[in-house]
């Protein structure tokens, strides 16, 4: 058994896939989640895939007393992966204080407790939103951070600064900041995946629900952008590929003695795909049609962004592997699994 890892937000979308990869790599996992945007049944899926049920604490990371108790009851935690955060861009504009409180208090509490409980490293979930609309694509980690376009994006920028300042002050911890591009797909077992509550805001859950007949049609937000087919371009990264990068990052922090105290990596495929190309990929790989129409642009959307992932490829030894058609098939299998369960 390798070290013990605390995964905050571990029943969420990326968190649950990362718990699976950590357990399969031999790590012992403790999850804390307040279940505000996830379901306790995710633990069953994790157990079915890995044969191990992770320790689960239902609690809120914005409450430092809850976290202190968790560390006291689960001695020997060596690393943290911090997924516990609010993540809907639109909602963050409506409820900025909720976003600042959840995302920043959680991080500050964790950082404060790390030295006290001998936790060596924290992997932080950041986002390509910190780059805003890039001047050039693909975009690498040295690109300038642009003013955030939403409170959500601002919490990611501020969080990166908080970690940087804390480590610069001499705090005895390490951190790896991972800037995700657009995570999509589901575990190939179809036992875990994305579980959006209510009407999905993100492209893939909306697309799979439309393909399943739950939604009438998908609206493509704009086809008059300065891109080859006029729709926006993103770097869609398979969620299992993404999860694997966290395991590598954790091992690098905990086992690599001579590594820098803070490192930042883009996690993307290096390939930009347009919204229309993604719909085509889904239809091609699943044989299922997605009724869609072109609608107006969505406020605040970035026109095109994709990653230069060379740093993660060479320094972490991590490269995105799953072809987009497989990712689409997995997303569809997960949607069908959900439909089966809800019958
Ligand atoms: C993708 C593309 C839409 C829905 C968000 C966050 C970002 C990041 C990933 C995490 C856009 C278009 C969407 C629909 C559409 N990290 N679209 N019809 O906005 O790129 O990034 O998720 O949390 O921080 O902002 O992702 O999936 O919402 O949109 O045409 O019904 O699909 O316009 O071009 P986005 P998304």
List the helices and strands and how they pair.
Layout: E1 4-8, H1 13-24, E2 28-33, H2 42-50, E3 55-58, H3 64-73, E4 77-82, H4 89-94, H5 96-116, E5 121-127, H6 151-168, E6 174-180, E7 182-184, H7 203-211, E8 218-221, E9 233-234, E10 236-238, H8 239-255, E11 262-267, E12 273-274, H9 275-286, E13 292-295, H10 310-316, H11 324-341
Parallel strand pairs: 1-2, 1-4, 2-3, 4-5, 5-6, 6-11, 7-10, 8-13
Antiparallel strand pairs: 9-12
Helix pairs in contact: 1-2, 1-8, 5-6, 9-11
The site of UDP-4-deoxy-4-formamido-beta-L-arabinopyranose has 19 residues, from helix 7 and strand 8.
Tell me about this structure:
This protein is α/β, with parallel strands linked by helices. 41% of the residues lie in helices and 17% in strands. It has eleven helices and 13 strands. β2, α2 and β3 form a beta-alpha-beta unit. α9 crosses α11 (324-341). The protein is globular, with a radius of gyration of 19 Å. The relative contact order is 0.14. UDP-4-deoxy-4-formamido-beta-L-arabinopyranose (WQD) binds at residues 87, 89, 127, 129, 180, 182, 201-203, 206, 218-221, 232, 234, 275, 298, 301.
């Amino acid at each position: 058994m390798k070290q013990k890892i605390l995964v905050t937000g571990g029943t969420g979308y990326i968190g649950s896939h990362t718990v699976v990869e950590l357990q399969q790599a031999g790590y012992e996992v403790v999850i804390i989640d307040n279940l505000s945007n996830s379901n306790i049944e995710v633990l069953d899926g994790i157990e079915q895939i890995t044969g191990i049920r992770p320790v689960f604490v239902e609690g809120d990371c914005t409450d430092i007393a809850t976290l202190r108790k968790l560390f006291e009851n689960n001695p020997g935690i060596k690393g943290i992966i911090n997924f516990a955060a609010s993540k809907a861009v639109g909602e963050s504009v409506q409820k900025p204080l909720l976003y600042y409180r959840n995302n920043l208090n959680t991080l500050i509490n964790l950082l404060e407790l790390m030295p006290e409980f001998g936790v060596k490293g924290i992997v932080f979930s950041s986002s390509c939103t910190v780059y805003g609309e890039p001047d050039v694509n693909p975009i690498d980690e040295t690109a300038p951070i642009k003013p955030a376009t939403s409170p959500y994006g601002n919490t990611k920028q501020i969080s990166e600064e908080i970690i940087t300042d804390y480590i610069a002050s001499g705090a005895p911890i390490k951190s790896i900041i991972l800037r995700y591009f657009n995570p999509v797909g589901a575990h190939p077992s179809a036992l875990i995946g994305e579980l959006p509550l209510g009407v999905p805001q993100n492209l893939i859950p909306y697309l799979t629900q439309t393909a399943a007949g739950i939604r009438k049609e998908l609206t493509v937000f704009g086809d008059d952008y300065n891109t080859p087919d006029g729709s926006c371009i993103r770097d869609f990264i398979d969620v299992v590929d993404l999860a694997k990068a966290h395991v590598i990052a954790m091992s690098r922090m905990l086992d690599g003695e001579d590594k820098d105290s803070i490192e930042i990596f883009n996690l993307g495929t290096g390939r930009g795909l347009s919204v229309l190309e993604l719909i085509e990929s889904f239809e091609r790989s699943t044989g299922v049609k997605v009724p869609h129409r072109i609608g107006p642009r969505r406020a605040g959307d970035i026109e095109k962004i994709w990653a230069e992932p060379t740093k993660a490829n060479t320094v972490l030894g991590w490269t995105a592997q799953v072809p987009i058609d497989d990712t689409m098939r997995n997303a569809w299998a997960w949607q069908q699994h959900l439909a089966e369960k809800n019958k």
